[in-house]
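Fold in tokens:
===
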Amino acid sequence: MTGRVSPLAATTGHDLVEVEHLKLYFPIKAGIFRTEIGSVKAVDDISFEVRRGETLGLVGESGCGKSTTGRAILRLREPTEGVVRFDGIDVRALKSGDMRRMRRRMQIIFQDPYGSLDPRMTVGSIISEPIDTHNLAQGQAKRDRIAELLTIVGLNPDYVNRYPHEFSGGQRQRIGVARSLAVEPEFIVADEPISALDVSIQAQVLNLLTDLRDRLGLTYLFIAHDLSVVKHISDRVAVMYLGKLVELGPPDIMYAGPGHPYTRALLSAVPVPDPAAERRRKRVILKGDVPSPVNPPSGCRFHTRCWLYERLGQPENCTTDDPALNDIGNDHRVACHYAAEALKTDVGVAHITDRPVRRGTPEAALAFATARAAGAPKLEAPAFEGTGAAAEVSAGDAFAPTVPSHDASGKASAAPDEPRVL
């Protein structure tokens, strides 16, 4: 399954969330008077939009600012600068009471299903907490709503009196999803909701999120590391590096022809389940460590590790000018001075595909087996006489087990002319 535009997004064409020049810096303090000596530029001047009804995937290395971006949009972390508008409303300008009411429309699914649930509260109390905060229901109506939410996420409504330690990781994450749905939000930040789960459970949670989006008309900012998962669930994908957005576009177009060298390096690291393709494809191994967000490089932040920068002879503008996120066509935006040169290469292209590849028995062997079976004599079913267990077996079943006969000593024996199925 590839990314697709939600019918709701296609009909409205309206941006539900708009982020403009968002910055979030964490101060570094030292000394007895706690003097600020610097700052960690976790999110540094990014702009993008999340369209109504779509899923925007956000990917990048650990520490690049993905989770901080999601929390800044919800004002769980107060942005340093920038504008965040939700459905045309400036979120940063809201007072505490108005912001509390706005939070009913914006929710988050936390990354850790173990640390995000209070171990002293029952499942019913965890899910009812946002309902009580916004005074949405009381008494039997609240209990019915909790049971409905548990049913929606695939859990037994009888689990309301159990505690989080009684559930597996996947079940806990479903409880977190139910809690986020309790206030009927329009927008959900899914902060790596499957990274702490087993692979089999990841598929269940992903299918749940996709189903809920289609049923309830939700809008997601889906944060993840796995590029194949992001392509599966997202309508558009944004790639982040060291606090900056470097590429944004539809997954089919972007994965087939990435315009930024960093995106190509990420795709080249994805293993291909095809030995022949794995030998042919061109890998990129980035040199050096990720620069510190305290003192990021000037110009393009990726130039210190960029393979294209070295291939082009280290152009000066890569070290002096910070590239803007420019549209290169087909709703595809890239922050690179030499995106056209990157598109000409075949590094990191077409690694993640939905094309089925046959594994197992070769076609030639199957054809030989089919021809041999066509000329082989047909096995006849053994004839059974009498009553009892032998008579109940269908004579038309060629693979029915042979019922042994017993001699005078009581040992089982088979007639020499009867076929035996071992």
